[in-house]
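Handout, section 4.2: multi-component inputs.
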Amino acid sequence: MSDQAAVEFQNVSRVFSMQHGSEAGAVKAVDNISLQIRDGEFFSLLGPSGSGKTTCLRMIAGFDRPTSGRILLGGKDVSDLPPYERDVNTVFQDYALFPHLTVGDNIAYGLMIKKTPKAERRKRVDEMLELVQLAGFADRKPAQLSGGQRQRVALARALINHPKVLLLDEPLGALDLKLRQQMQVELKAIQQRVGITFIFVTHDQEEALTMSDRIAVFSQGKIEQVGAPAEIYEHPATAFVAGFVGVSNLVSGEVAKRITGSEAMFSVRPEKIHLGATGGEDMFTANGKVRDVIYLGLYTRYLVELDGGGDLVVVEQNLKTTSMDVVKIKGQPVILSWKKEHIRKVGG
Amino acid sequence: MFQRISTYLYLRPRLSLALLLLPPLVWFLVVYIGSLLSMLVNSFFYLDGFTGQVVRQFTLDTYAKLFIPTNVQILSRTLFMALAVTLGCIVLAFPLSYYMARIASPRMKTFLYLAVTLPLWSSYVVRVYSWKLILAQEGIISWFARLLHLDGVLNWYLSSPLLGGPSLGISLTGVFLVFVYIWLPYMILPIQTALERVPKSLIEASSDLGASPAQTFRNVILPLAFPGVVAGSIFTFSLTLGDFIVPSLFGNSSFFIGKAVLTYQGTSGNIPLAAAFTMGPIVIMIVYLLIARRLGAFDAL
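Output:
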């Protein structure tokens, strides 16, 4: 890894002018973002739809251009370069495989454009097919492949050019859960093998936490927090991050004062809360009533209504309890307790 | 009552299908295929030159007549005209279709869509006659040429033996222009549909992989629009092959297939030769479609 950032955003904004009939207005899709993505890093842009993460990715690829600010690739300003002059490649959400070309020709497309000799093209396509575990599929058409296979072809087609940065736009979104989890592991392994910077757009926080070295959490065109997965999860910087990444209980005002002695808003993760009193100086306790119980096999999710208002979600593993046991608790008053160190003060 | 019929049919999907397809099948088999077959049969009869009667006896003589020099000339002239018209239509239609499918705003697209199809609402003959005014000796084009002091160029062009004539209104050039005009919508619409079906992400992917706009056009857009071009050219090609009105109104004395068929059948009652002539376009179209399939035009269908 060098010190040079692979990708850098310098005060980048992107404003879309909208025209709906007679109404005209402007939408700030990306609002003055500055960001550095390190060389060789698996970096995720995480956020709900419309938060600006995809627009950021498209601006790195060159499909979209910043309204203001600069984008640097490897230290070079590329803000005004068309996509075909940028050393980045993209795996598209819908894979965007060329339907009229075979799998082999799809993967070789970039090399064909660069006029690489046929023999070398063939060799490198075979290497790529090997890498994505599709050896022997070169002569099929994309329409004959399953979703997961198409996804691998799209990956191979982008990686064959050895780009400095690989952009992935929610590439696992269309796959079913099992396949998605399998591909998460595989993607990460491939990234480590090829050593290319991956920039991964997703709205799935679990996916981001599983694969990333670092994550940028987006909301309404701005970055809320940048950090390693553990950091984002354990130390959410804002209420939005706390709520978006994992399930978080947010408590503020009068109820917060009753528990911590301060009205400031804090968050606490459901898995940190214990059902029942646990004494000790380092513990917070709260009283409430179990309003709902959802048995989920491995664990049970309780919804507890706090005295004084507000709900807390509590998750406990079913280490000793069965479905029969947990349901009985519904409607009962309970004491909740958790370690003081597990709360996070969060800003607005 | 209706409900009982519905239930009865719902439980018998084959019967419903049969009822659904019966009318079109009858029409297709009897009227469409039937008339084609009777034409095919007629083309193997011959006309007794002495009595002027059609002799219903199998012979290949009529087809042999197709290959006398005059008739070969008619066939090849029509074929070249159809090819030229098709090419002309492709050249004019492609940019407009591209604009409609990929660039124009929804409102502009609706407007252009109407503009392209609107002429089809009015009578073909009326529109063709309006071109008489445009191309005539004292028509709009020659008036405009005089205005620009280009009448010398026009006259020089008209003096060329093959494409020229007394005026644009009576020349092969005139026939070509009017054909391109009337068949153009049939080329624009299929190309536009094909281009519209190309996802934007494919074009972005191509550019992402290093292809310049020209390379993207050649490697992605053109191959994917090709089925539309073939569909459009099937229309322009076959419509030109069979048309007799435009050549009779704008042509010089040279015959086209449609005009020949009309003359043989209508004037001289030589139905076998007319039928044999008509087999010409059919064979040409079959060959054309086979070539198109070879080139992969139907792969994406």
